[in-house]
Amino acid sequence: MVQRVHFQRKHKYNTKGHDSKFVIHRIVGGKLACKRVKKRVAGPHTPKYLGHTRLNGTKALREGGQKGSYRAPRRFKTVSRAYGGVLTSTQVKERVIRAFLIEEQKIVKSVLNRRR
Predict the structure, then answer these.
(1) Residue 45, helix vs strand vs coil
(2) What is the mean pLDDT of the chain?
(3) Which stretches does DSSP call E strand in the chain?
């Protein structure tokens, strides 16, 4: 007969938020126990309206705990670039080019207005 496994966390149901991993030892009373498995961390992404892509060069850290993002050093959370921990390199490049072209457009417009 198959032995029952006791979930020692929130409740007895095997849901996504109550994910667990079996261990090979028994707890008091000869029962099988489950060991908690933390959910995978997605890590920092760009904002949703900019594609929600993963930022390269940053660590995927949990919010709290011993290795949480507020305790981790800055080099884990950012990249040494403008908008380092927020935007990808291609998005920064597009912003720089767009700003340059807008300034060029303003200059051309002012030159054309002077000729008139």
Answers:
(1) strand
(2) 83
(3) 5-6, 20-26, 32-36
Contact 68, 79 (CB under 8 A): no
- 7-48 pLDDT, tens digit per residue, is 666 777 777 776 666 655 677 887 777 777 777 788 899 999
Non-local CB neighbours of 63 within 8 Å, separated by 6+ positions: 69, 70
Q: Beta strands of 1-114 (E only): which ranges?
A: 5-6, 20-26, 32-36
Residue 28: predicted pLDDT: 81
- Say what the pLDDT of residue 77 is: 87
Output Rg (C-alpha) for the chain, integer angstroms: 26
Q: Is the pLDDT of residue 88 over 80?
A: yes
* Ordered strands of the 5-6 beta sheet: 5-6, 32-36, 20-26
* Type of residue found at 89: S
First to last CA, the chain: 95
